[in-house]
Amino acid sequence: MISSQDESIYDLFMLVNQLLNLIPDNIIAATFTTHYTALVPLDPRNLTMGYKKVAERAFKPNMLGLCIFSLILGFAVKQLDSKADTIRLILQETNALVMHVIMGLIKIMPIGMFCWMCVEAINMKSPEKILTQLGWFVATAMFGFSVIWFILYPIIYVAIVRKNPYKFLLNIMPAMIVAFGSSS
């Protein structure tokens, strides 16, 4: 039997480990699964009996754990300097290999997207209805963006800076065009 104080300390560490997934117990498993705490009824036929906490895994990458592991590994490799040349070389070659594969995928992605869009266009039941809905969506989005960019942001800019907001918007137009063109 665990005492109340021990259970509180245990829950604190499990909260950090399972809910935030800061420290993965297995780095390979962390690339595919993440921890979470499930509440399982003590008696499935009588839910008033209470629940117990059970550590479970979900099929979802533990990105936070992977980032923490990568940071620790990077700091260790940096601290070891010449002693870690082998691991540094392995990481650099792995990075070059992954970047080569990703660049290849990026080059063929427009062809795949075009083919996928063609299949979707062929399978459409009512193209005119979908195009009408898409047109209304684009018009609504553009209206909302216009209100934000040309009314709301200038009001905030004038309230804080006390200068002409449209001159500022004109100066950042190249950045806005790049952001709009890249959907970022």
UniProtKB/TrEMBL annotation:
Subcellular location, record wording: Membrane
The keyword Membrane is annotated on this UniProt entry: yes
Coiled coil: none
TM regions (residue ranges): 59-77, 97-122, 134-160
Membrane topology of the entry: Multi-pass membrane protein
Keywords assigned: Membrane, Symport, Transmembrane, Transmembrane helix, Transport
Listed GO CC annotations: membrane
Pfam family of the protein (one): SDF
Keyword Cell membrane: no
GO molecular function: symporter activity
Superkingdom as given in the UniProt entry: Eukaryota
Chief location bin: membrane
Recorded family membership: Belongs to the dicarboxylate/amino acid:cation symporter (DAACS) (TC 2.A.23) family.
Name of this protein: Amino acid transporter
